[in-house]
Write a structure and sequence with these properties.
The protein has a domain of 181 residues: Orthogonal Bundle (MetI-like fold), CATH 1.10.3720.10. Helix content is 77%, strand content 3%. The chain has a two-stranded antiparallel sheet with strand order 1-2. A hairpin with a 2-residue loop joins strand 1 and strand 2. The longest helix has 36 residues.
């Protein structure tokens, strides 16, 4: 098992290195002149040349990549070009630090709501397999899998924000607000992410529990007269947790991409919205840092899913 874990860790490191190459290459091929996007159309040739020297655009791309990668490894994310003033440089790490708490809060709340709700609905569907309740849950999750996040967000905004006016359309916070004061602005973004990720977890929970319920030892427990709730909670669910944990980790990784869409739709003041704004003004260091943070979170969550599979699956722990 130790060898498998080390191998997975090495694979994750290689994937992150390849991701860094892709992120750097993607920012290199962004259309338009980066210097003009930062300084504006009215900038003088001298000012444009100065910003190109500051960006190091005259140097070869491999040299700039090595310097950028070295900065990432040492925690130096660079200087924001669009947010800095002539006499005051704004560090990318400072800008991200101002926004990352809101992004973590959004993703964390969505996970806290979606994971228990998915397991509960999956258990209900498994226990009532073939019934009307099961068909309703299966149909609802299938519809949820079929629609993208921005469509879910649009429907929620139309009914809950525009028509009923229960929640604000824009998720904005005031300085000094407590968590409870932020809840109305968080409801729609959290609901959008929850609906987008819980369908797969619900269906996997149902499938895993039904698979365990058909096992011989479950049939023996039924013949001995063990109560159905006891069978589900104490025998079926614990033995079905391996695939459930795996799909939960994978869906939380998928949530990373959903955060970018949701923050943009609701103008949520998080890190994803910061990255989208940085792309518009060609703030290359900020775009690169935000993209690497999101990609790293995605890789780490996928690695967690792999490690959970190894730990809870005896066939992977003791391969023949």
């Amino acid at each position: 098992m130790f060898t498998l874990i080390v191998r997975r860790l090495m694979h994750a490191i290689v994937v992150l290195w390849v991701v860094s190459l892709l992120v750097f290459a993607a920012t290199e091929v962004l259309p338009g002149d980066v210097a003009i996007a930062i300084m504006g159309q009215q900038a003088t040739p001298e000012a444009l040349e100065a910003i190109r020297d500051r960006l190091g655009l005259h140097r070869p791309a491999p040299v700039r990549y090595i310097e950028w990668l070295g900065g990432l490894l040492t925690g130096d994310l660079g200087i924001s070009l669009a947010n800095s003033l002539p006499d005051l440089e704004m560090k990318v790490s400072d800008l991200i630090a101002e926004r990352i708490d809101d992004t973590i809060r959004l993703a964390g709340l969505a996970a806290l709501v979606s994971v228990p709700l998915s397991i509960m609905l999956g258990l209900i569907a498994a226990v009532t397999a073939g019934s009307r309740t099961d068909r309703i849950i299966q149909g609802a999750t299938l519809c949820s899998l079929s629609v993208p996040e921005y469509f879910v967000a649009a429907v929620l905004v139309m009914f809950l924000a525009v028509q009923l006016r229960w929640f604000p359309v824009i998720s904005s916070f005031r300085t000094g607000e407590t968590f409870w004061q932020m809840i109305p602005a968080l409801v729609l973004p959290v609901a959008t992410l929850t609906i987008s990720v819980m369908a797969h977890m619900t269906r996997m929970t149902r499938a895993a529990v039904l698979n365990v319920l058909s096992s011989p030892y479950i049939e023996m427990a039924i013949l001995k007269g063990v109560g159905r709730s006891r069978i589900i909670l104490l025998h079926a669910l614990p033995n079905a947790l391996a695939p459930i944990f795996n799909v939960i980790a994978l869906n939380l990784a998928y949530m990373i991409s959903g955060v970018v869409i949701v923050e943009t739709v609701f103008n949520f003041p998080g890190m994803a919205n910061l990255m989208v704004g940085a792309v518009a003004v060609r703030d290359i260091p900020l775009v690169q840092a935000c993209a690497m943070i999101f990609c790293t979170a995605y890789v780490v969550l996928n690695l967690t899913a792999d490690l959970l599979s190894i730990v809870v699956n005896p066939r992977l722990r003791h391969p023949r």
